[in-house]
Amino acid sequence: MAARDGRGLVPLLAFLGVAAYSLSMAVVTPALPQIQAGLGTTAAGAAWALTAMTLSAAVATPLVGRLGDLYGPRRVLLAVLAAATAGMVVAASAGSLPVMLAGRVLSGVGAGVFPLAYTIIRDVVPAGRTASAVGLMSSMLGLGGALSWCMAGPIIDLLGWRWLLWVPVLGLVPGTVAAWWIVPRSPSRKGARVDWWGAVLFAGWLVAALAALTQGTFWGWTSPGVLGLLAASAVTAAVWLRVETRVREPLVDPRVMRLRGVWTANAASLLSGYALMAGGLLFPLLVQLPEDTGYGFGGSATQAAVLQLPASIGMTVAGVVAGTLDRRIGSRAVLFGGAALTGAGYAFVTVAHSELWHLYVGGIARGVGLGLAYAAVATLVVLAVPAGETGAATGVNTLIRTVGASLGTQVSAVIVAGVPGERGFTAGFALSAAAMAAVLPLALLAARGRGAGGAPERPPSAADAREERDPVPDGSLPAADRP
Questions:
Q1: Which of 103, 382, 394, 409 to pair with 54, CA 20 to 30 A apart?
Q2: What CA–CA distance (Å, rounded) separates 181 from 171?
Q3: Which UniProt keyword terms apply here (predicted)?
Q4: For the purposes of burial, counting CB atoms within 10 Å of the CB of 222, is it exposed (0-12), middle (13-18) or buried (19 or more)?
């Protein structure tokens, strides 16, 4: 009965779970120098603390989403939260780099909270409120980043870098208990099977591709290692696609990925992920460059973090209001507006970055725009696919955003290193503006639905049935969703 009575708290639990995982992912970025010194490793070794979790998350996200579709999101969510918590404990207490990396790999399984949360929201939230719930959950990505930058300096100075890794545990442990108590059970599909061959092949080509992207800067983009990884990825991906078109229940159904509402949203996610992490590298780097370069600001790491804070808050707020906008103008218009605002922010700093306020203006526009865009693409995917494919489809969308983020970091680093002086930053900002300009036609191509606000219609869920039985004319929560 606890799960049924607490049904109205389920979306809140999903939001908090996603925020805790986002914090665990982002929290090592400001602590990389301290991790390097504390574990006695190199800068490249410390960077693997982030890379290891990214690779693990990329593989786990669509697989966990598929498992949630087949066996019910509750039991899979509990396993994912337990694995992520254990991984964070191992990483926080690690005395060597290999142990740290093992913990981070295990923590990466927690990325599965994204597609599971979307599935849970679709199950318990009525269709008219789905966009609001999805937008709020998407905003948790910005909240996790904002919290990590706010906490990093004081925690490192007062308690040490390891406590940055313990903080997410303080959110994951009660989150796991609350999930066990609140999230409703759902039946498994009869005769459901996991496409394990597809999962292995998928992991193979994806890890090879992401490893090439993340190590290209260190090994050289034309090195045998990078070229070999890219070739192995291409061959394995071809085999994987062939397998997925032939099995009865594929890990990722190619037919679903070809839906207009899905492929346009996925392409927009790739470009938006690029724009997010390109700015995450370019803005702090420009702030911390010495003033004698003629274009740097000579700022500290704290000043660079403060610069990121308004953008992260703007991204969070934009995700919250995106659902309201979706009901009024539709997800396509929200995506278009978010892409235009993000592109305008980057275009502004392309031509004006000589004063710190220029970076604040461009950064806030970037954050608010990406908050709207992320919420819109998630809603487009959730409403475009059958209910039984929600976890897998949103898992792939989250994965593609991760790939775009990796591209944003690596490509921007190459541009700044290869184009001398201020022109490198100008080129990096301009390329990010162009990436968001490419999202505009994708927004126009996205499927036009028949539901309210232009959202595609979908089969009624259990939440819709509850609202049908207990309508509330004044617009407040239906009885089943009230605390």
A1: 382
A2: 16
A3: Cell membrane, Membrane, Transmembrane, Transmembrane helix, Transport
A4: exposed
